[in-house]
Every structure is written in structure tokens, then in C-alpha cells.
Amino acid sequence: MDIETDSTIMADEQAEKSARAEFGTMMSNLLPQLGALIQSDPACAEFCGKFLKFMTAPYRAGRELDKRD
User: Fold this and answer.
1) For the chain (length 69 residues), average pLDDT per consecutive 10?
2) Does the global pTM surpass 0.70?
3) Separation of alpha carbons 39 and 15, rounded Å
4) CB half-sphere exposure, 4, CA atoms < 13 A
5) According to the model, what pLDDT value does residue 60 have?
6) 3-state DSSP of the chain
7) What is the Cα–Cα distance from 18 to 66, expressed in whole angstroms?
């Protein structure tokens, strides 16, 4: 049996790049909205923090954010 390790590594790298791009897009859309909401009503900052953790939880980077309570 011949296993092509380069081909599986390339697929993993592409999946990681895609996941990071999706995360970056989500964050770049979400953060300005949350920032504006907090600026208009600072009392909602705690809610915004919880919402941010909720939105990032499915992403690997989100798991790291969750560890930093």
C-alpha cells in the first residue's frame, strides 16, 4: 500500500486556511457591530462578550478564547 502523505497534508492545510478565512470574515463583520452597540449602550458590554464567545465557540480559535475567562 502506498500512502501519499503530501496529498493529505495539503488537504488539511487547505481546510485550515478555509476555516481561518471563515473565522476572520465572521469576526470582521461581528466586531464593528458589537463595538457600536457597546459604544451606544455600555451596559450591554457583558451581553456582547457572551455573544462573542457564543459566536466563536464552534471555531478552533474560539475554543482558545473560551479558555481565557
Assistant:
1) 64 87 94 97 96 88 62
2) no
3) 36
4) 5
5) 77
6) CCCCHHHHHHHHHHHHHHHHHHHHHHHHHHHHHHHHHHHHCHHHHHHHHHHHHHHHCCCHHHHHHHCCC
7) 21
